[in-house]
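User: For my dataset I need records formatted as: sequence, then structure tokens, nothing else. Please produce one.
Assistant:
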Amino acid sequence: MTINPNFPQMEYGWGALWNCNAGASPIDRYVDITGRTYGTVGTQRGRQYELDLVQSGTLRASLTNKDGSLDPNNQSGPWAGNIWPYQPLRVRAQWPPTANILDPWIANGGDGSALGTISGGAVGQDVYSVTDSTGGSIVASASAFSGANVFQFAVPASQPVGNRICHTPQPAVTPGVTYSLTIHVRNVTDSTTLDVKPFISWYGPPPSVAPTTNVYGSPVTLTGSSTATGWATLTLTATAPANPYGMDVGLAVATSPGSTCNVQVDAWQLEKSATPSAFVSPGTWYPMYSGYVERWPQKWALDNTFGLVEATGVDTFALLSQRLLRDPLTEEIYRRNPTFLYTLGDPSQVESFADATGNYSAAPISSSKYGPGTLTSGNQITSASPSGAYTGAASSVVTIANTNPGTPIPGPASYISLSKVGIKGPKGGTATWTRMVAFRYAGPTPTDRAVIWSTMDKQRSGGLPSGSQIWFAIDNAGKFYIAMGGPSNNTAAFYPSVAGVSVSVNDGNWHLAGISMNATTGDVWVTIDNVQTHWGSASASNPTGCQSDALGNWIDDTTGNGSVWNFQGDISYAIEFPTALGPTDFGSIYNAWKSSFSGDSTDQRYARILTYAGYGGPSSIQTGVTRRMGPMVTGGQDALSALADIVITENGEHFVDRQGILTFRSRAARYNATSAVYTFGENEAAGEFPYEEVELDFDPTHLANLVQVTQSSTNQIFTGADATSQTNYFPRTMQRDVNSTSALECQDAANYLVSRYRNPLARVSALRLHPSANPTLWPMCLSLELGTRVRIMRRPLGAATIQIDAFVEKIEWSVDDKGEAFVTLQCSPIDPQPYGEFAAWHTTLKTTVASGVTSITVNASQDTTNPLAMQLPAGTSLTLGQGSVNTETVTVLSVGATSPGWTSAVITLSAATTKSHTAGDLINEVLPAGTSSPTAFDSLAKFDSVAFSY
């Protein structure tokens, strides 16, 4: 293979074996279609301005298709039936280019990473083992063939022939190309021998999880020695088929071993050549783009003899934009695959209630043998107190007003018959199940009990159920409980409690109750309003063989639907799950139901949305600075828009990075980026990277001097304004929704945005880099990522030097088949305001003191310009010996005089110390509870000089 030393080795990998893969970019098993690229391939990621929404990263590529191989309608093509929209596409570049196309980490036995177990499945660390149950390990070796580390894999006795000792499916396969594999191995277990052989395997056709074709090299016997320093060199040459879906290379067992041994592997080399060459450590593979082929449009030229596919690619954001979310309660329920879900939010005057899962028919309203009570639908959610309702789902509820509520007196009653749609107790009497229901009791305190939901079999004793049964009920003290028994009458009353005190629900407010059973382990969990109580050894109470199921009352079908212990109030969300939920599940469902997860931090909310959307790929989510968001309002919103709303509240950024990792950064990321990573300019001797063109604009696009921030949960508007800016530029309004529960944070947001955008800012409309003309730029260009802080230097002839510090907002690549490559950046300016570090006042003790002293000498603290007496007024509490065994709290009486640049100072205390302290001990202001570091007690590390909390 001919290598251009000034241009990276490119790989355009198409995932013919994969589907959209839940939004994850696979790290292996690709088809290399680099040879089909024609003309220019372009990628684009990011946004124009920092206030804009980030769009899906895109790719455009012309692929030659003269043979029709990439025609989705070609039923005789090499990948027939397996060309689909949203199959993965990755673009990578190896620099410097080498014959060895493996990743350096793989080729060099894990060099550069920590010793220990191999974390197979990570990007760039795509090594696995069939023989070693741990996946293998990285060990240090003074006699490594390359570098300082080697891979080590266990091979237990009696391993079948062909089992893979180590392998990697990382490289993309080019159809019809001949490959040569070289691998260096040794056996380091004394008194053992092992026959091994190299292999190259091909995936497909058809696409498969395991390779379908294996090519093996000649076996080699490895004689074990724990002091071995030499290596056996194994080689193999094989030609890829015309229709592969991926490749796998490595080392396999050639003869089943008689005893267990350990094999070390190093210096792997895979090259596109019919002849193996000497090992070279490969260049680094830099990811440039990870996404999906969205379309395969075709066109033909030259009298229909030259076919092209104008492929277009998108990243994970495009997938998320198509996923419509439901309200958070519904999302939490559906995550757990409910058996049925009767929300009871049906319109008024219906005669039956729909199962939202579609598994069962609509459950009808029925009457007891004593006649109907009152049961109406379409009613508003009400409660006795403002905090007594729930907000997790905007739906109506069912209201029941049966006679004689909470008494043992039979009387007319209406209820919802689950029995009539085939629901008779937990589905099939299975060993694991969960039931939940929301209710509001509006009747008087029961004289006996009021039953919300009942199911039972036909066994009776003295007119009462004596076999399988479940009752959701309220007792004569207004306490909630669940009565449950199995077919052998092992009935027990399960009261959820806090410190032994049962939970009262006789308050006219809404409550969410549930019970889960695992009959295999005997575990029962009962919950009411996120109060969970556990019982063990309860397998005999599992109610199997139930014959009736009534929602809204106690109904006995053996007496012709007799009713007693009637219910009065509201009900909603009757649910059954086929699994036994535990405290975490109950807690998530409750928080969704009660408050729509109000109180989430932005990072928690971001991760929650990804889970609801079904995203299965890697993510990098920073801890958000906004710690308490308002309710989650996602019903009918697409997932990408929901994520964008979180980013707006946080004032952070998010994007899909070069290798397909979904990235969320808090506003602290840019606050804390205080220096440029790269400087662009013509002074290469000073480490500047040269550019070809730059376009600067003193841009008023986002000029704003009247900012209106709306608090999403209350619609209250907070205003920030700058009169001088309004005079200079005319009033310019910016409106923004911030979903924080803190009114102070919303006001800070308005003030910050005014301080940031009250004046126009110099922006970099375009900065063009040309790495193909200057190869020293390649490592920097291939490492660029969105959000990187950079500096642009411009030295116009005869004019003042221009210096702009900015953040990279947009990256565009243009790479053609003639060896040209350009990178164009768009950058937004850094915040023009200075930042300050906010932390507790802190320093160290200058001289050792004994107990009983009333003054101490301290070293300089952070501010040596202003007098220390201004920083520590009389009455300030200090902690001496923070984190030591002699920690104590003292009070400042006075502080000695200091002058600018002071290096030590004397502090007089209001009372004598009670403990001794050593020079160098930490001294600081008293910290908040749960905090131990005076330098980091505030999660907001750096702030604008105007807006100190946003």
